[in-house]
Amino acid sequence: MKKLIFYIFLLSIIFSCTSEKENQYKQDILGEWVFTETKSKNSDEPPSPFIFDAPNFICQKDGTYINRNGFFKFIEQQERWENKTLYLGEKTKFKISADSLSILNPVTNKFESNKIIKLNKDSLLLEFKNKSAQLFISKKTKLKQNNLIFDEIIVSKSGCYGTCPENNTIVKANGEIIFNGIRFNLKEGFYTGKFSPKIFQDFNNQLNQMDLNSLEKNYSIDVTDLQTETITLISKGKIYKTISDYGNKSPFELRRLIRNISYLYQKNNLEKIIVKDPIFIYFFKSKNHRVSLIDDSEKFFLFDELSNAKVINNTNEKFPFVCNYLLERPEGFDYKDISLYEREVSTDGRIFKIQLRDKTYKTVDLGYNFFEKNNLIEPINN
Predict the structure, then answer these.
(1) What is the reported pTM?
(2) Which of 26, 69, 294, 347 has its CB surrounded by the most CB atoms within 10 Å?
(3) Mind giving me the DSSP string for 326-362?
(4) pLDDT tens readout for residues 198-248
């Protein structure tokens, strides 16, 4: 009897210590954790190298786990060109059980446990199934005070030598989204819909936590056949800044924002719209001046502005700036016939006279001079 009482007493002490330790872990795990290094511990195989970004994460009091790199499910088909990427967002659930941190994998819908070797308010050491371990430190976020207000954000992603999703997305402060899927998206064509304005406010807050003035206009690496991502920020109705990134060279927080905007279409019920002869224009030229739009995001911004412009009676007035845009071409067309798919646009920056597929003209009025407002006119140096 005395032995039984002793064992019960001993188990109660062990349980009490375990419970106390678990409760402490539940408090200390809260906050943002930044990866510092990988350590091996009696591992039969070396840990996988980090090909992309560090696996930083956030644990919140309500049990939400935020993987800052996001969760993806790749839908592979027999035909390579039909492959698609499903973005599952950044958020899932976590729980602390004894000495383990368990994360709900949204792809498998199963919890995956990692052993906590060490955890306090400043550092975390996690051990994985292959006996490798990762060391994280707690990040104390310092919010910047930019207080900039953006009206719209436009994100464009080019193709690559592979199945990178190629698309254009506009999100607006009023909760409007416009999506143009070109290749390797769950939706292809033109779509529009609504999302919560709070989501846009979150995007705006993320931008205000970046040092936008220090961001370069162009980032790139010396490797071929990768994807280019561009983002254009619109404030007070005009272009505030455009940034181009070839090969994921720009700062992580900017790329995270681009990712979450470009996949937003997958989280919303969008309505397909028919766009006849979408007008995507890079370059305008007059006798002495030129106007160049930077990459696809600025081009998509002008496309949307022209889509919402007021149609007016055709005019015989001659406009100083002219350019060509291309109609959609059939698969495998002969490039020597490219002139068959070219149409003309003439403009003064406000009034746009647009030649359509059937070679008739439509004239629209933006209500303001797009070139002057965005300071896009440059002299041609002869």
Answers:
(1) 0.84
(2) 347
(3) EPPPPTT--GGGGGGGEEEEEESSSEEEEE-TTS-EE
(4) 999 999 999 999 999 999 999 999 888 899 999 999 999 999 999 999 988
Question: Which residues 6+ apart lie within 8 Å of 11 measured at CB?
Answer: none
**Sign, CA torsion 141/144/147/148:** negative
Whether 322 and 289 have beta carbons less than 8 Å apart is answered as: no
| Residue 101, helix vs strand vs coil | strand
* Helix (H), strand (E) at residue 105: strand 100-105
Distance between CA atoms of residues 61 and 142, nearest Å: 20
Same domain, 115 and 231: no
**Is residue 321 within 8 Å of 348, Cβ to Cβ?**
yes
- Helix axes of 252-262 and 197-208: crossing angle, nearest 10 degrees: 170
| Domain edge (last residue) among 253, 273, 293 | 273
Q: What gap in Å lies between CA 352 and CA 237, rounded to an integer?
A: 18
